[in-house]
Amino acid sequence: MAWRACTRFVSRTPSTARGAGVRGTNRCYWTTTSRRSAAALASGRAALLLGLPALSCLGYEAYNRMQSLAVLHAIGQEEVLEQADYLYSCAETEKLYQLLLQYKDSDDAEFLWRLARASRDLSLLPNMEAERKKQLMFEAFEYAKRALEKDDKCFAAHKWYAVCLSDVGDYEGVKVKIGNSYIIREHLERAVELNHKDATSLHILGYWCFAFAELPWYQRKVAAVIFASPPVSTYEEALAFFLKAEEVDPDFYSKNLLMLGKTYMGMKDKQKALFWLTKAKEYPAHTLEDKEVHKEAVDLLKKLG
Length: 305
Prior knowledge:
It is globular, with a radius of gyration of 19 Å. It has 16 helices and two strands. Residues 1-74 have low confidence and may be disordered. The chain has 305 residues and is mainly alpha-helical. The protein has helices spanning 4-7, 35-42, 46-49, 57-68, 77-89, 93-101, 109-123, 130-150, 155-169, 174-194, 199-213, 217-226, 235-248, 254-266, 270-282, 288-304; strands at residues 8-10, 24-27. Helix content is 67%, strand content 2%. The protein has a two-stranded antiparallel ribbon with strand order 1-2. The two termini are 27 Å apart. The chain has a domain at 74-250: Serine Threonine Protein Phosphatase 5, Tetratricopeptide repeat (Alpha Horseshoe), CATH 1.25.40.10. Its main location: cytoplasm. This is Regulator of microtubule dynamics protein 1. Belongs to the RMDN family. It comes from Seriola lalandi dorsalis. One of its GO terms (molecular function) is microtubule binding.
């Protein structure tokens, strides 16, 4: 949900400025005081709120070493960051990770938040081994945390800290996940405050709001049992963030178009829902996520008639 917004949230977009490029949130999410309550909360739409041939560990490490040989080494810091952003825009996830891993002990937040993003992206590759995925998720969170410690004025550090905190929450249970939701929103809002032109942060905030706005009353009640004061939001609040993201960077992300359509559906505005869902359906499918968005948009348009 709000977290998942942080997990697969954004489709890959080329970076046009330092720290501008980010993966879309299908990703800004969550997963998992009684077992019965936790199960009830994790079911249905609440799962959104409390909210990819696997290689062996040895094989994976050998593969990484081979990939690292293909990475071109730039000389200066600016050159390395430019190369990293180029590899990101080309979806060269393994090469990007190997390049930035050489700077894991850096004191520069610009290297660290990019390494957090690369570690996370690597964990989400198809057929990633479960244990390796978990390791990369927690690794990404540590890099994001260090980036924030090195420079709390870096908007991207705040954004990726929020995303990665959501990710690790999937392994820590419902109560921790809901508790982290407040922290996630704080860091996303700080990211927007530091860079109000970052469409991805705005989109993730919209997704966060949508997830809690969509939570049925009975699941809110269960959440209240687990957590005294669970987060709340409205479709109107979610809409404002999605529209702002679109204003900042029109058509930057197929998922944002889809979420606008779903938000208007939640608000019972059929005409506007049809408009945005049609745009989502017609969005060029460059990524797997774009194809998933297309399919969901088609299904929702059929329901709307």
